[in-house]
Amino acid sequence: MSFMKKISRAGLVLIILGVACLWISLGDTIISFKQAKDFEDVLNGDVAAGDHVAGQVLFLLDPFASMQTWTENSKTHTTTAKKTSSQYYVLPGGEGYMGLSIGSKNFSTANKLVDQTYDFLTTGVMPTEELTTDARVVVMDEELAEMFRDEMKEYYGYTDQELDDMGPFLMIEPRAFNTIRAFCSAGAVLLVAGVIAIILHWRKVSAQIRKAKEEAPGPDLD
After folding, report:
1. What values do phi and psi take at 110, rounded to 5?
2. pLDDT interval class at 1 (50, 70, 90)
3. pTM of the entire structure?
4. Which of helix, strand or coil describes residue 210?
5. How far apart are CA 11 and CA 62, in angstroms?
6. What is the pLDDT of residues 76-115, one digit of tens each?
7. Phi and psi of 104, rounded to 5°?
């Protein structure tokens, strides 16, 4: 029972919050400090999961999937698409392709770059549309990977064996690294503050318990 009295509840809360912040942000924070590769490296296939990629996208092909937010009618319990928040485009890379996630504010720019990429394939004129991103490279999640595989087979003529030989499909995802670093720093501060709060509370309660024992009357021997 005395052990629980020595533990600071406020300190525990701070530690839990700090660990949660670090759990969410630490991986991306580490990636953010890596030397960023550019999209020439991507085009040459010189990227892997966990890499940091930044700069101007050189070429881009059609989207193969999208993410939508939905609204539900409370009366009819039906759902309707509200808006498309992200689109996932096919990005040339190495001997094959990977995915690139694009947010809604860049849809127009991305679609112009797609058109210019197809023009390049017929005219040799380099795309001029400027689409830049600061991103991480991750392994594509299972649902997106299945849609990507279908796109590769239906529109690009790849066989299952050729797709298997590519290994895990990669996705380049834009990240707000400055915000993530701040979130990670906050998590570290909360964690340290929680540990300090627990230590101080532990010492305080331990001192109170010792003092109470010292002041307690001894056994009456008379």
Report:
1. -65, -45
2. very low
3. 0.80
4. helix
5. 51
6. 666 665 677 889 999 999 888 999 999 989 999 999 999 9
7. -60, -30
Beta bridge partners of 88: 65, 101
Q: Are 129 and 112 in contact (CB under 8 A)?
A: yes
Tokens matching residue 94 = 């190495």
> Could you tell me the sign of the dihedral formed by the alpha carbons of 95, 40, 138, 129, in that order?
negative
Could you tell me how far CA 10 lies from the centroid of its own chain? 29
- Alpha-carbon gap, residue 55 to 75, rounded angstroms: 47
State how far the Cα of 214 lies from the Cα of 119, in Å rounded to an integer.
88
What is the reported pLDDT for 51? 97
* Upper half-sphere CA count for residue 217 (Cβ side, 13 Å): 3
**CB within 8 Å of 75: residues ≥ 6 apart:** none
* pLDDT band per the 50, 70, 90 thresholds, residue 165: confident
CB–CB of 21/194 below 8 Å?
A: no
Contact 166, 90 (CB under 8 A): no
- Break the chain down into helix, strand, coil percent, rounded to 5: 50, 25, 25
Element (H, E) at 87: strand 79-93
Sign of CA dihedral 25, 87, 51, 34: negative
Contact indicator for 100, 169 with CB cutoff of 8 Å: no
Sequence spans of domains, the chain: 2-20+182-215, 36-176
